[in-house]
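TL;DR need structure tokens for one chain.
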Amino acid sequence: MNSHYKVENDEYFKIFASKSSRNQNTVEKYRKILTKFCKATKKQLNEIIDDCTGEQNIVTTVNLAPDKEGNERKREIRFDVNNKDSSINKYLNEFRQYCKSRNNKNVTINSEEGLIRSFLNQSGVLLPKVDRLEDDSADWYLLTKEDFNYILQDASLMQALLTNFLTSTGMRVGDAVSLKIEDFMKSTEQYHDYVDVEDFIDNAPDDMIGQWVFKPNKTIKDKVNCVTFNSTHTSNLILQHLRHLKNQYYPTKNKDKDEAEKLTISKKDPLFGSKRFKYKKALKAKSVADHWGKKNKKFRDWKINQIKQQIENGEVSEEDYDEMVSKIPKYHPHICRKFFSTIVSNNCGDIRVCALLEGHSDGLPNDKSYIKKSVEDIKEIYINNIHDALSLDNVETKIISNKETEELNKKVSDADKKIETLTNENIEKDKQIEELKQLIYQTREQVDNLSFNRNRNNIEKAISEYFDTHYREDILKEETTAAGAKKCVILCKLAYDLAIENESTFRDDDEYLDSLIKKAIVRYTLNPNISLDDKTLNADELELLNKHISLQLELIDKIKSNNTLWDLVKDDQITLKNVLANIIKKNLNNIDNLNDADKENMVQDILMEYLSVD
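>> reply
TL;DR here they are.
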């Protein structure tokens, strides 16, 4: 039991813990690891140290053969700490074996051995050279920009914001979540002279680089300085978030509240606040790690699919599959710091600048004036060599404007009125009422949670309309009705996915749209079995689908043949297709018995429902 080894009562440990520079968390970490060391060796801490230091001064005298004149010869052999039989080697080896018996990872053993060696060294024990165990930490494998962008494509604004902040500054998440809005105002004061938080939020310029000079909490007792910066994209996201809170979130929450109860934004508010507490309390580091970890399954599946595609394309061998899967990294806050450190070490040749950016001791002679003289120089190095490599600026996170919010609220109000009318007239429209209720819920959710919104409808519409104009007719001629229609849907979906992969560069001109469709055709050609879902249609379902699609195409032809009707609907074919599908669905049970008159009536129904859509 741990109680048998009371490390905290050991005189050596008391001396170690009494130093004023010791952080209490650090002392507790050493206590736990040294207790484990004692359990592994079955020795008290003072016994281990006394055994090791006691043999360091031993000098052994051995007799040598007499010289030519017959004189006696002797040689003194001093203690060799690297001798495999030395006490220190024996104790360290016992600790390593004990850890392995408990299935500790190599990365854990290396870390704990390092702390034990540090303590013993400070206690006067000479230390042998020991080879570190091979690093087996999954965290060793870094996320790429492409990985970050995939993860963030469906993230909230706060998650995207915090990820960008951590990757561009290299801060530990504990330091980041302790920041307040006033800290960000101060970090960007080179770009503005606002002291009032609301003036700052409304008028601060875009593309500011935040400048952070502080002592990291982990090493604050050691007075280690950190000088780092956040990217322009990160500053823009912070302003986007703060403007959303000030101009939309709080006004919505304050509706129907007394003046004394109303929420207002303050410079003392956390920069990274928790939505659960209306952004008035800071996020907790553990909560951030737990929340981010939920994205790892989807990310891992995506990476595995990429590996399988590489194998299928002949780019890698099947024999490499297991190794490549084992190297898939995990998305968590500290991986952002590792990403930052890797970029810094690869792009900055000055070891002192690297140390300052990462908040590490540089190991060079202390120069207290160095920071004051060099912040601007470091910033220049950051901008010229590091900034672009760190910035995750391919993911657009859109906050809806006040005008758009008013339009969404109007939709909610209109939907409420429609529900009331339908209910009062006692019309059998239960399904429509439920759909309208769902619309209200989704729209309110969008208003209340604007940071999750993505403005992608226009992208889907542009791709669909271009595809319909230039490709659909040829594909339907080549395939059977159902297969051709399904292929059209899949090609549009693939083109849309390609557009979203690099959404910030999307253009709605013909050249770009055509390139997306052609890339989608290539992807489809390489994998013709690709599908939108895993469902396989049986014969009856396939026959019904064929009839559905045939009727849809026939009705569209009838609409196109009437120039007056076609002029009314041709500019919004997505809505037309949704209405058309709904009308066909109502007649699906009678699809085999429809005559020309029935189909003409359906065209009129389609037109009336299309015109009634808000």
